[in-house]
């Protein structure tokens, strides 16, 4: 029997203190730049009938640049909404005994996406030192860390730059100059700093791993974000989106997070300045961070990033081919 729910539950957490601002909402008097309806489908196959299945699906949350409305889901198991404590990512968690080798879970929601443009002039000089809550964004991950080469590049590029904004702009330009958007080779898309430096090609994950690693070498808090990306201009018909898009933010001490989108700037040189300090509204942020532990915690290793459905059966992660995501986008009128 399939179940259909409107999600208005209070998120479940581990009880740890949150350390960022992701659940703040946009100002009430601000009008959205884009509004759209997203349908996220998780299709599972070759399941072992009679065994317990655990499934996690990422869901977006309100933050200063997006508001989520009318969150619904449909599936064979009852789901519980959880929040992990490190980055405050939210997810639906499903658990139950499998009765069919194939299963589908569908999550739907409306998104209002608001303008995200930084006032760079006001950020040219650093403010007060950041508190310890930003330390999590100065930590390396398994694939994004500081190599000797990255440290040398960061030292050279940041020489003469007194503030975080100037250093980050130098890193942004360096990554854009030394990377090309190219997926016709092995190893792209993992977000490996060694791959980005050695090969100099990849997708958005690789571009922003390089940028975040340079920020890490300079002691600048920086965070990786990933989500679903639509067309730049609204269209009348519903369409299937690409797999994902990711981007980054760095923090100017005592002031604000600043967005960057280097891979999109690489695709369109006319938007280089736009994508340093601004994000286009054709996106929804799903999760933040790398090496993620889910809630409840998965048996498998930390996730490199969390965008696709993640499932376990018999205490083991299901292979990628057994868990597939499809996302559909429908533009809505802005209010």
Protein architecture, described:
Residues 6-21 have low confidence and may be disordered. The chain folds into 2 domains: 3-114 and 292-332, no CATH class; 121-280, C8orf32 fold (Roll). Helix 2 (164-178) packs antiparallel against helix 4. The chain has 335 residues and is α+β, with helices and mostly antiparallel strands. It has helices at 148-158, 164-178, 193-199, 204-218, 262-267, and strands spanning 3-6, 34-44, 52-59, 66-75, 79-83, 90-97, 103-113, 116-117, 180-181, 201-202, 222-229, 239-240, 245-252, 256-260, 278-279, 283-288, 310-313, 316-317, 323-332. It is built from 5 helices and 19 strands. The strands form 5 sheets. It has a 6-stranded antiparallel β-sheet with strand order 1-4-7-2-19-12, with no helix packed on it. Helices cover 16% and strands 33% of the residues.
Rg result: 20 Å
Strand order of the largest sheet: 1-4-7-2-19-12
Strand content: 25-35%
CATH topology of the largest domain, by name, is C8orf32 fold
How helix-rich are the residues, as a percent range?
Answer: 10-25%
Question: How are the secondary structure elements laid out?
Answer:
Blueprint lengths: L2 E4 L27 E11 L7 E8 L6 E10 L3 E5 L6 E8 L5 E11 L2 E2 L30 H11 L5 H15 L1 E2 L11 H7 L1 E2 L1 H15 L3 E8 L9 E2 L4 E8 L3 E5 L1 H6 L10 E2 L3 E6 L21 E4 L2 E2 L5 E10 L3
Summary, kept brief:
This protein has 335 residues and is α+β, with helices and mostly antiparallel strands. The protein contains five helices and 19 strands.
Sum up the structure in keywords.
335 residues; alpha+beta; C8orf32 fold; 6-stranded antiparallel sheet; 5-stranded antiparallel sheet; 19 strands; globular
């Amino acid at each position: 029997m399939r179940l259909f729910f409107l999600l208005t539950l209070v998120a479940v957490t581990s009880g740890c203190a949150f350390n960022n601002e992701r659940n703040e909402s946009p100002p009430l008097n601000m009008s959205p730049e884009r509004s759209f309806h997203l349908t996220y489908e998780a299709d599972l196959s070759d399941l072992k009938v009679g065994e317990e299945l655990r499934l996690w699906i990422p869901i977006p949350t309100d933050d200063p640049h997006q508001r989520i409305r009318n969150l619904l889901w449909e599936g064979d198991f009852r789901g519980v909404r959880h929040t992990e404590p490190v980055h405050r990512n939210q997810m639906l968690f499903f658990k139950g005994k499998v009765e069919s080798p194939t299963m589908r879970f569908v999550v739907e929601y409306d998104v209002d996406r608001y303008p995200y443009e930084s006032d760079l002039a006001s950020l040219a000089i650093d403010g007060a030192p950041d508190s310890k809550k930003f330390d999590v964004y100065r930590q390396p991950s398994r694939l994004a860390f500081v190599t000797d080469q990255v440290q040398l590049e960061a030292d050279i590029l940041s020489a003469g730059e007194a503030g975080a904004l100037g250093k980050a702009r130098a890193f942004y330009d360096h990554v854009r100059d030394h990377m090309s958007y190219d997926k016709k080779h092995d190893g792209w898309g993992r977000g490996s700093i060694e791959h980005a430096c050695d090969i100099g090609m990849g997708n958005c994950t690789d571009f922003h791993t390089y940028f975040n690693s340079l920020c890490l070498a300079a002691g600048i808090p920086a965070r990786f974000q990933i989500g679903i990306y639509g067309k730049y201009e609204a269209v009348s018909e519903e369409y299937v989106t690409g797999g994902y898009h990711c981007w980054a933010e760095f923090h100017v001490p005592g002031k604000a997070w600043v967005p960057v989108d280097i891979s999109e700037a690489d695709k369109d040189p006319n938007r280089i300045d736009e994508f340093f300090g601004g994000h286009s509204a054709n996106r929804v942020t799903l999760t933040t961070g790398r090496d993620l532990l889910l809630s409840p915690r998965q048996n498998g290793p930390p996730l490199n990033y969390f965008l696709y459905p993640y499932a376990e059966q018999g205490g083991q992660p299901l292979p990628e081919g057994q868990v597939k995501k499809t996302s559909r986008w429908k533009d809505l009128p802005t209010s």
